[in-house]
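no rush on this but wanted to send it before i forget. what follows is a protein written twice so to speak, once as letters and once as structure tokens for the fold. mainly i need to know what kind of three dimensional shape the backbone takes. thanks a lot i owe you, the record is right below.
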Amino acid sequence: MAIDVVAPMPGTIKEIIVKAGDAVKEDEELIILEAMKMENPIVAPGNGTVKEIKVKEGDKVNTSQVLVVLG
């Protein structure tokens, strides 16, 4: 079952911490999203494996845009 990790707010992807194939645990940081001059960590909602990363560093994203797919 795939889990989409989405942006909670509009912003810019500052850093991608994980790569496809990485095993992650709940609350592990996946991406740093810069919004309103603050760095916001985007964390895994549960344990899983990174199946796909749908953004790259420097991308501007919108609220609810899928950033990472976990499996």
